[in-house]
Write a structure and sequence with these properties.
Length: 491
Amino acid sequence: MRYISTRHGLQGNPAPLSFQDVMLAGLARDGGLYLPESWPQFSKAEIAALRDKPYAEVAFRVMEPFVGDSFGEPTFRRLIGEAYATFDTPDVAPLRPLGRPTRTDAGLHLLELFHGPTLAFKDVALQLLGRLLDHTLQNHGQHATIVGATSGDTGSAAIEAVRDRRTIDIFMLHPRGRVSEVQRRQMTTVLAPNVHNIAVQGTFDDCQDLAKACFNDLAFRDRHALTAVNSINFARVMAQIVYYFWAALKLGAPERPVAFAVPTGNFGNVYAGYAARQMGLPVSHFVVAANANDILPRFFEQGAMTLAGVVPTLSPSMDIQISSNFERLLFDLYGRDGKVLAEAMAAFRRTGTLAVGANALGGVRALFDAGRLDDPGTLQAIADASRRFGETLDPHTAIGYAVAQQHRRDPKVPMIVLATAHPAKFPDAVQKATGVRPPLPSRIDDLMDRTERADRLPNDAEALKALIDERMSAREQKGRTSRAARPKVRT
Ligand SMILES: *Cc1c(COP(=O)(O)O)cnc(C)c1O
């Protein structure tokens, strides 16, 4: 499988890249996002053959065409096995009905994606990506430095995915005092020597600008081999495609179509579902569920993407201004013409608006419904699921649950709601809605007692770069005297 950028053609026609190149690069050099040249195709018989297979086996079969011979089958299987052994259930992503499906109503189902180490769906992709990166770097005798910004869930999932790896150091910026205590502690209590938490005096946008400043300083970028593991990394999309197959198979795929409702921020998760459908999985439609930051519902209603300010909500992982992965869907809407899309994206930067034609809009509307829910609605949805089904939902999942019910097109088609976080990750909202504070799962129930470590920095790119330079040269000094830190080169 070879990969191209959504803006290919903008700077001539660079040669398509391999999976490992794309995984290491994250963002394309022309500013676009990487995609496979074409989607691998699964026939009905190939999909049916995955039924009743363990999660790791479905994962291997679905992802194999994307990685080709990058790792070799035994190694790829081993890395998948290790990634999903960190989940607290052998099913990895359990699917459970909400109430009892009947002959006329196939019902709502919850796909629990929060059984990984940091209790949010981002573990599904990052636990694998951390291992794929580490393996690749080890083989090349290389070291990479991850610099990222987080408003909550990404930071802890990325840290947990690479902690204690000799090939990777991670610098994670969070806005001081603006992430929840559970989210902060999930990052700052990881005391591994390669993990560097930085509490920035500023907002999430400031943190993102600081991270960008590091990438834009090319000498700095090359000196530390900077890499990004945010949701634009194609390897994350790939790992998320798996659970769409997994869930649909449990409800009768490929003979019976299913629908998915996805709590959406950067459009990475629901885009993986779109990819699964492009690969042959029968999906009737997707429900894109947003909070008050509703750039996507507005797009699906009006055919135009228009910037607005971000407002903080009870579902902070969906508080976004622009959905970065949406460019991958736009690529198809623009007839996979990278040059035209690049021009449209540049105009969007200038004007704050991007509109598509009626034909393109009709096409996406056939496949995507979208809706929004504000904070009072979110609390009501949490209370409603608790009362009707005895199910405790986190605020993100609750939005998917409520918007899904407004967009059942055919009651005979099961509607699968993606449960993207464990309720204990957002205890205040859940307590407000239900009166009950959800306990932390036993694997992290001592989180509030663990020691924290973080550096504090002002909102200043030079201070950040100086800290990274200093920290990395200290790490290299240590590396020279300790065998454990030396990169291992395999033959
Ligand atoms: C990241 C996140 C989302 C949004 O997912 P995208 O892929 O950015 O659309 C939704 N819910 C939770 C709990 C998340 O952590």
